[in-house]
Amino acid sequence: LRAAASTRLQTLLLDVTSSQSIAATAAWVRERVGDRGLWGLVNNAGIGGFVAPNEWLTRDDFTKVLDVNLLGLIEVTLSLLPLVRRARGRVVNVASAMGRVPLFGGGYCISKFGVEAFSDTLRRELRPFGVKVSIIEPGAFWTPLVDPAKVGNGLKHLWERLPAETQAAYGYGFVEAGAWRSAQLLRLSSARLCRATATMAHALLARCPRSRYAAGWDARLLFLPLSYCPAWLSDALINLILPSPAGTT
């Protein structure tokens, strides 16, 4: 689909979970950049999936998130890498502050840890070719991804499909407390998306881009310090904001 506002800007629908769609997109890009190669690739596609204890989830719940956030990102990158290498360009992968410190179960944090690992290895491999790889680690920004109602409804949906034994172990109060605490935390999300997009622009255009960018006050002041804490301390601090199952201390 061509953008009507500009003759230079072109857009294309891409399904990062479809190898056929990715191959078609790579061919489309190759046709337009030719021998010049591709200067910049920004991988930003992502979904949140369920925010819940891992025990409540199935393999499919994890797979749906990993297919978009991690495996799709990897396949898109590998498909376009020869063009980026030709231009001695940039790869910018959007991970998350929770790719440093996970706050909840499910595929989201796992996928972002994977993005970090893939990007680190890619950065070292491509350095000899003059290609620079950067990781963006945003905190919470106000987008549909962090809709409190969606998180609460997801918890209730998962609760309804749990076996009776698991429901008894956690208690329905866990669902109510989890939904309420998630809503309170998500209200702290920043509406200033420019703080995230500015880091992407720097990673693409700066003469010396950074390997990692923390975007947002929580990424800088909460997640970054927590990532350097010993496990016992970070566990204790995170447990203060997590709901407790029924009958536990």
UniProtKB/TrEMBL annotation:
The keyword Oxidoreductase appears for this protein: yes
One GO MF term attached to the UniProt entry: oxidoreductase activity
Gene3D superfamilies: NAD(P)-binding Rossmann-like Domain (3.40.50.720)
Family: Belongs to the short-chain dehydrogenases/reductases (SDR) family.
Protein known as: RDH16 dehydrogenase
Short name of one Pfam family: adh_short
InterPro entries recorded: NAD(P)-bd_dom_sf (IPR036291), Sc_DH/Rdtase_CS (IPR020904), SDR_fam (IPR002347)
UniProt entry tagged with the keyword Oxidoreductase: yes
One GO-annotated biological process of the protein: steroid metabolic process
Keywords associated with the record: Oxidoreductase
